């Protein structure tokens, strides 16, 4: 009986606890609703007083819809004519003014080397000596035979004068002497070829043979180059051939870096390469300081034309579209999108051929937020051409990559069409 009486008190206490918790939750919900009601009443009163004050003063309310959208701040460039130099980028190679790979004319053994690696030599200076002992022996034998034939010719002449020798014997003696003299001259030429000398002033390369080596005419001994002046060979597209003139100047920069250098056009290939449709041009570069090396790669700016009065804008100011290109301009405090025709371009600027004129304010910032007819306030205004420096540009403006498509104006007008540069 005692064990059955214990569960009843526990159940009674649980029901009492749950009843107490429900009453506390109801009280908290009621307090929250009361606070929310009081807050909404206070806010309603404040907004009503603000509206009454605004109506009493005659000024617009907080929305500001009566004054229209605020003006957008944008930087601009005022167009001004500038000199423009049109150039064509090209790649070129520097070649030595004179260059030769020295090889022997005879198949003989080297007995002496006078050439030093990398040395400067003068024209006619001895570089290599080949074995010539047999040639000297042959030359001595021919010299002895020549003296003998001279004596024989003298005797035949005296006999012929006395009528004791025929004309035929005299002619034979003279012919034998002439033959020996010819053989002697031939050996002398061969003997000269055993001495290999520098054909012009220049600097030697690295020799490929040593004393005692057996060489042939196919054996390269050493290279010799004259780099006091260098040839600059480059190719230009066929469409620019009419701009190339002998005597014209160009600028180039070596691949290893350094300042721009000048070269003078000295020769033009008379025909266009039918495979690449390019024209080969050769210019001459002075290299008295030896700073340039033959075989180096260079980048060339070949001048095409120069003109005055070019109107240039930053490349970022040009907006591409389906019909061409446009720029945003400021006119009477409003933004307008106008068609333009592009000319040549520099690294950072583009020439405008048509669509704008000198003095026009071209907007250069906030382009994504501009709309046709929207009010605009000028920020920083750049005066183009103030520095007076000439711009250098490539010949043809390639289409710009799309950056932002202009949105429709307030009136919903279609985007203007423009003609792009080809």
SSE pattern: HEEEEEHHEEEEEEEEEEEEEEEE
Rg measurement, Å = 49 Å
According to DSSP, the number of beta strands is 21
End-to-end distance: 110 Å
- Work out the helix count: 3
Query: What is the percent of helical residues?
Result: 25-40%
Mean pLDDT: 80
Shape: rod-shaped
Beta-strand percentage range: 25-35%
The main β sheet shows up as: 8 strands, mixed
Uncertain runs with pLDDT below 50, 5 residues or more? 1-22, 41-66, 386-390, 396-422
Which structural class do you get from the secondary structure elements? alpha+beta
Write the layout of secondary structure elements.
Layout: H1 7-57, E1 72-78, E2 82-102, E3 108-113, E4 120-121, E5 126-130, H2 133-161, H3 167-192, E6 195-197, E7 202-204, E8 214-215, E9 222-237, E10 249-254, E11 261-268, E12 278-286, E13 297-310, E14 312-314, E15 318-320, E16 325-331, E17 334-345, E18 349-354, E19 361-363, E20 376-383, E21 391-393
Parallel strand pairs: 1-20, 2-21
Antiparallel strand pairs: 1-19, 2-9, 2-13, 3-5, 3-8, 4-7, 5-6, 7-9, 9-12, 10-11, 10-13, 11-12, 14-18, 15-16, 16-17, 16-19, 17-18
């Amino acid at each position: 009986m005692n064990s059955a009486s214990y569960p009843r008190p526990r159940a009674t206490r649980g029901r009492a606890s749950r009843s107490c918790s429900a009453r506390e939750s109801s009280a908290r919900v009621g307090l929250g609703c009361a606070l929310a009601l009081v807050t909404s009443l206070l806010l309603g009163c404040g907004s009503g007083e603000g509206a009454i004050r605004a109506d009493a003063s005659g000024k617009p309310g907080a929305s500001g819809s009566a004054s229209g959208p605020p003006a957008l701040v944008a930087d601009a460039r005022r167009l001004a004519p500038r000199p423009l130099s049109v150039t064509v980028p090209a790649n070129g190679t520097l070649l030595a003014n004179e260059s030769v790979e020295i090889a022997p004319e005879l198949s003989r053994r080297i007995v002496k080397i006078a050439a030093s690696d990398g040395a400067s030599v003068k024209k006619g200076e001895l570089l290599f000596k080949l074995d010539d002992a047999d040639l000297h022996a042959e030359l001595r034998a021919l010299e002895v035979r020549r003296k003998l034939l001279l004596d024989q010719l003298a005797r035949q002449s005296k006999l012929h004068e006395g009528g004791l020798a025929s004309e035929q014997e005299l002619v034979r003696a003279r012919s034998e002497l002439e033959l020996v003299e010819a053989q002697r001259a031939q050996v002398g030429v061969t003997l000269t070829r055993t001495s290999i000398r520098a054909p012009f002033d220049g600097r030697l390369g690295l020799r490929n043979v040593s004393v005692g080596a057996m060489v042939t005419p196919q054996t390269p001994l050493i290279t010799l180059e004259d780099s006091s002046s260098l040839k600059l060979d480059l190719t230009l597209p066929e469409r620019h051939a009419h701009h190339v003139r002998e005597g014209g100047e160009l600028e180039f920069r070596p691949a290893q870096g350094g300042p721009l250098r000048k070269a003078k056009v000295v020769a033009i290939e008379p025909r266009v390469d039918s495979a690449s449709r390019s024209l080969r041009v050769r210019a001459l570069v002075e290299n008295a300081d030896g700073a340039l090396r033959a075989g180096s790669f260079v980048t060339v700016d070949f001048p095409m034309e120069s003109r005055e009065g070019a109107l240039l804008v930053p490349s970022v100011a040009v907006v591409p579209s389906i019909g061409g290109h446009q720029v945003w301009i400021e006119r009477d405090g409003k933004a307008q999108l106008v068609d333009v025709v592009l000319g040549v371009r520099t690294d950072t600027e583009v020439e405008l051929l048509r669509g704008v004129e000198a003095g026009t304010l071209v907007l250069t910032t906030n382009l994504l937020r501009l709309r046709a007819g929207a009010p605009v306030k000028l920020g920083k205004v750049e005066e183009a051409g103030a520095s007076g420096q000439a711009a250098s540009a490539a010949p043809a403006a390639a289409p710009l990559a799309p950056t932002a498509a202009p949105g429709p104006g307030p009136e919903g007008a279609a985007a203007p069409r423009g003609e792009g540069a080809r």
